[in-house]
Specification:
The N and C termini lie far apart (about 45 Å). This protein has about 220 residues and is of the alpha/beta class. The strands form three sheets. The chain has a five-stranded mixed beta sheet.
Length: about 220
């Protein structure tokens, strides 16, 4: 861990004492976890405090922790001894313990040239919701709409929370881990109706198992 990162961490700890907990990260990164109730206060402090000055929001994304720590690969027709051999199934279920969904914010201080990753877990499994940070960083507007569209995460206080990547009539949220790979419906253009029509998916499900080539089995 560089002295520059440690100095920044001490400044963040001093300003966010009791509001954020330092999270594991790579040696050249700095990451913090924050509770939903403290999100806006923490973001405002990170933006306005001299020495921190995280004036730019680079990205906002959603995370789905379904089966995190329980499965490495969900399969129905393949053995569980291969893809999941590194999983500790005796460990507590991460999604159940701290919330299935999370929102991650990538922050940048242009003036001071340092970065920070902030993560907040949504408390509800059925209706994941956190406060919108549009009032702190205006750039969050479309990022939060993407997280809503793809993960179904709601952002309290967002000025225009609606789908942005999928069609307005799209069913479900495609980045959720339990969303079917084939989707729920398929679309095609109907020449007689002269419009796009939605129909049930006609693709038959199949199990895809990657082929592994072992070097000790090759001839010559």
């Amino acid at each position: 861990m560089s002295e520059r990162i440690e100095t920044l961490a001490r400044n963040v700890d001093a300003q966010l004492a009791g509001r954020a907990i330092r999270a594991p990260s790579l040696a050249d990164e700095l990451a913090y976890d924050v509770a939903p109730a403290d999100l806006l206060a923490a973001c405002t402090a990170l933006r306005d405090t001299p020495g921190l000055e995280f004036d730019t929001l680079i990205d906002v994304c959603g995370v789905d922790y379904l089966d995190y720590g329980r499965d490495e690969w969900r399969t129905w027709g393949a053995t569980r001894s291969g893809f999941s051999r590194g999983v500790d199934r005796s460990a507590p279920h991460a999604a159940a313990a701290a919330g299935r969904y999370a929102v991650v914010y990538q922050l940048l201080s242009v003036a001071l040239n340092h970065r920070l990753r902030l993560k907040v877990r949504c408390e509800s499994l059925d209706d994941p919701i956190v406060d919108s940070v549009v009032g702190v960083w205006a750039a969050a507007n479309w990022f939060e709409r993407e997280a809503f569209d793809l993960f179904g995460i709601l952002f309290n206080g967002h000025p225009d929370l609606r789908r942005i990547l999928t069609d307005y009539g799209f069913i479900g949220h495609p980045f959720r881990k339990d969303f079917p790979l084939t989707g729920n419906v398929e679309v095609r253009y109907d020449a007689q109706k002269q419009r796009v029509v939605y129909e049930p998916v006609s693709i038959e499900p199949r199990t895809l198992v990657p082929r592994v080539i072992r070097g000790d089995r090759l001839d010559g």
